[in-house]
Design a protein that fits this description.
The structure holds 2 protein chains of 2 kinds.
Chain A: E1 3-15, E2 18-22, E3 25-28, E4 33-36, H1 43-50, E5 58-63, E6 66-67, H2 73-83, E7 84-87, H3 99-111, H4 116-125, H5 141-153, E8 159-163, H6 171-187, E9 191-196, E10 207-210
Helix pairs in contact in A: 2-3, 3-5
Chain B: H1 3-13, H2 15-49, E1 55-59, H3 63-70, E2 81-82, H4 83-90, E3 95-107, E4 110-114, H5 117-122, E5 127-130, E6 138-141, H6 143-149, E7 156-161, E8 169-181, E9 192-194, H7 196-202, E10 213-214, E11 216-221, H8 224-237, E12 240-243, H9 245-298, H10 303-339, H11 355-380, H12 384-390
Parallel strand pairs in B: 4-9, 6-8
Antiparallel strand pairs in B: 1-11, 1-12, 2-10, 3-4, 3-7, 3-11, 5-8, 6-9, 7-8
Classes of the chains: A alpha/beta, B alpha+beta.
Chain lengths: 211, 393
């Protein structure tokens, strides 16, 4: 099986009378994909289910052939740290650590080992090398987003999960961020899955799931 | 990059808060350790000197004064007693050993004690150089006395009347040094010891022994019966007074102990305040940092790691407080020792910890752990997904 992601009859409920049903969805390795839908239909919930931050109520998710519901909480943490790179809508960092240390922290928590060369390589590539000893709060909005992408890719994840990466940006910036995500995902061997209500991105992806 | 490093970064990210907490921890630890050091040295110094002395006999007056003067040599004598009467008591069947002391003269403020070699044996004195006195006007010096006055074997000096440095000098009888003792931490360090005849001759006592006086007599009992009957007998039937050093010293230390236990409570309160400061700053920063912690979880950190980070932060502060606090108290005592060597001689190794200080260390670490426990437990029950999604805008 060369599917990087596959879901089957996925259900999730926050409470008994509120059950979210998700259509079946599969993504081949390297096939960048899009999950779209309006606010409140469970996009972020699906993202968190794929990333192992939530566990399914019913149904099954496979990531790289691994069934997530068979994992313990502890194993889920390990799975997430090694395989999933998150890029959240609001880029956030560990305040007390500088730019480079934030990337190293992600490697430490995710893989247990630090790869300094990889961290510096990514910072260089995303134009952040000159800031590597700075506090993350000194960066501009665009720089923060690039740092968040660098951090997510620093663990060489199987899947790069981006939550609304473009919704607050104007057209040209939105396209730039999209380009960056795709280029860097390819360069680092990750499969990009974007979750968004931003319809501008739909045309760019062949594999789309509409919630 | 590891948990300890991140925890330290989190501490230094809020330097003012950290300094405030540290000051409280340092003050608490330093105060508590000072109490242990000084209290222990006080106890030690007092107890060391009464070892082997069951009873002290001297002229009537304050029993505490008698003990302080005859045992510790830090108060004026209560007066003189007759040698004949003392000798008679020494023959009592309940008395094991006696040591007679005659004093009243001094050299440069250091007391000259006329006594026998038994007095040196009582404190297990060892000679740095020379030997014990054989004739009158030969003297053995305590380590401190020799050091202060730069006196060596063969040197001569004149005694003065009383304890006062400016007192009248007895000019016709020089003392000659025959030996210098090793430093022992006992009362011997600051004494000049000679034969009782030297003291009598300075004051020109002549004729038969019945006229001679001594200042005090240290008594060891044969058995417990002595403790019960002898003091009463002496106080009732003789012109002398009997005092029990153990009882008097306990009474004296009892006076100190009120102050010491008050200070002990103060130091504990300061330590608790330090812990509360850790608790409050953690609860506060936990609210601010809950998103940060959820983020760390999303990177693959386990619950245990996030829990440990919070605990380690408190423990790092605790360890810093302990190290600096102990350094302050030990350094303080060390400096104090350089200034006042002669008084108590609180002899403390700069890097040596007393048992009481280990208790302080354990108590401080426990307080810090408890302070971090609740904030850390709250990170365990955090709903990572909810915290992450609630942060959007």
């Amino acid at each position: 099986m060369n599917h990087i992601l596959k879901t089957l009859d996925l259900k999730f409920s926050y409470s008994d009378n509120e059950v979210l049903n998700f259509p079946n969805f599969s993504v081949a390795k390297g096939e960048h994909s899009l999950i779209s839908g309006n606010s409140g239909v469970g996009k972020t919930t699906l993202l968190h289910l794929i990333g192992g931050l939530l566990t399914v109520s019913d149904g099954e998710i496979w990531v790289s052939g691994l069934s997530l519901s068979s994992l313990s909480k502890r194993e889920l943490d390990e799975f997430r740290g090694k395989n999933i790179g998150f890029v959240f809508q609001q880029p956030s960092f560990i305040r007390s650590l500088n730019v480079q240390q934030n990337i190293e922290a992600a490697q430490y928590f995710g893989k247990g080992t630090i790869n300094k060369e990889k961290a510096i390589h990514l910072l260089k590539k995303l134009g952040l090398e000159k800031y590597r000893k700075r506090g993350t709060y000194e960066l501009s909005g665009g720089e923060r987003q690039r740092l968040a992408i660098a951090r997510a890719l620093s663990i060489s994840p199987e899947i790069l999960l981006a939550d609304e990466p473009t919704s607050s940006l104007d057209d040209s910036n939105a396209f730039n961020v999209y380009e960056l995500l795709v280029t860097e995902a390819d360069a680092n061997g990750a499969t990009l899955i974007v979750v968004t209500h931003d319809n501008r991105l739909k045309a760019q992806f062949k594999n789309c799931l509409e919630l | 990059m590891n948990l300890v490093k991140i925890s330290i970064k989190n501490i230094t990210d809020k330097p003012y808060q950290a300094v405030l907490t540290l000051i409280m921890l340092i003050m608490g630890v330093a105060l508590a350790s000072l109490l242990v050091l000084v209290g222990g040295a006080l106890d030690d110094s007092f107890k060391k000197n009464i070892k082997g002395i069951d009873m002290v006999v001297g002229a009537k007056g304050s029993p505490l004064q008698l003990i302080l003067s005859a045992v510790y040599q830090i108060d004026s004598p209560t007066g003189n007693i007759s040698l004949a009467e003392a000798d008679q008591l020494a023959k009592n069947r309940l008395v094991d050993k006696t040591i007679q002391l005659s004093y009243g003269d001094s050299y440069k403020g250091r007391r000259i004690i006329g006594t026998s070699s038994d007095y040196l044996e009582l404190y297990e004195a060892q000679f740095e150089e020379g030997t014990i006195f054989k004739e009158s006007f030969e003297a053995v010096l305590g380590a401190l006395v020799a050091e202060e006055n730069d006196l060596k074997i063969g040197d001569e000096f004149f005694s003065a009347h009383g304890d006062d440095e400016t007192a009248e000098i007895h000019g016709d009888h020089p003392f000659r040094v025959t030996g210098v003792l090793k430093r022992s931490g006992s009362v011997l360090d600051k004494l000049i010891i000679t034969k009782p005849e030297s003291v009598w001759e300075v004051h020109s006592y002549e004729g038969d022994t019945s006229e001679k006086d001594i200042t005090a007599m240290l008594v060891t009992f044969k058995n417990k019966m002595g403790m019960i009957s002898l003091p009463r007998m002496v106080n009732k039937n003789t012109s002398m007074q009997a005092a029990l050093p153990a009882i008097e010293i306990n009474r004296l230390l009892g006076l100190f102990s009120v102050g010491i236990s008050t200070l002990r409570i103060v130091s504990l309160v300061v330590l608790i305040l330090g812990a509360v400061s850790i608790f409050v700053s953690m609860i506060n920063s936990l609210k601010e940092r809950s998103y940060e912690l959820a983020l760390i979880r999303s990177m693959g950190a386990t619950k245990t790691q996030v829990f440990s980070m919070t605990v380690i932060e408190a423990m790092v502060l605790g360890v810093l407080g302990i190290v600096v606090g102990l350094a302050v108290s030990h350094g303080g005592i060390y400096v104090l020792n350089q200034i006042v060597t002669d008084q108590f001689g609180v002899s403390i190794g700069l890097f040596q910890l007393l048992k009481g200080e280990w208790i302080i260390i354990v108590v401080t670490l426990c307080l810090c752990f408890l302070a971090a426990l609740l904030p850390a437990l709250r990170t365990l029950s955090m709903d990572v997904s909810k915290v992450l999604s609630s942060h959007v805008k």
